[in-house]
Specification:
Layout (H helix, E strand, L loop, with lengths): L10 E10 L8 E13 L2 E12 L2 E18 L2 E11 L7 H11 L5 E8 L4 E5 L4 E7 L1
Antiparallel strand pairs: 1-2, 1-8, 2-3, 3-4, 4-5, 5-6, 6-7, 7-8
Length: 140
């Protein structure tokens, strides 16, 4: 008999995170984002990043969707997807140069997204990249 795994696809979870990428000697750079991660099937998914960015004295809106394709499970809890495109919403006012600083925290390479999903409790997961933990999310 087949027993369903907790991380079987489709997998959807959401979280709210703050990324402080400020440098001690530089200006303030904070990202306040809701993240919605969806692995639709073994081959496709997306990551939504919505919120605001504070860069120095300037506050901008961040609203981007990272579309994923050619995905597969490379280990028990590790998934790797090709980044097909990054879609910027019409209300997004964050410059690409600022967004790319957050993007580089999430990915090692701008061509793919690799994430580990570690179950914390019944519906909560720790999402991590190759170098660090990124966020904790609630599966829905």
């Amino acid at each position: 008999m087949f027993k369903r795994q907790d991380n079987d696809l489709p997998f959807r979870c959401s979280a709210f995170s703050r990324y402080d990428l400020s440098r001690h000697e530089g200006k303030r750079l904070d990202f306040y984002v809701s993240q919605d991660l969806r692995f639709i099937d073994p081959h496709s998914g997306y990551l939504l990043l919505n919120g605001q960015v504070t860069a120095g004295d300037t506050v901008t809106v961040l609203n981007r969707r990272i579309a994923l394709s050619n995905g597969n499970r490379i280990e028990k809890n590790t998934y790797r997807y090709k980044i097909r495109t990054i879609i910027t919403a019409t209300n997004d006012t964050t410059p690409d140069t600022i967004f790319n600083l957050l993007f580089s925290e999430i990915t090692l390479d701008p061509t793919y997204l690799q994430l580990d999903l570690t179950r914390v409790d019944e519906k909560s997961y720790l999402i991590s990249g190759p170098l660090s933990y990124l966020f904790t999310c609630e599966r829905y």
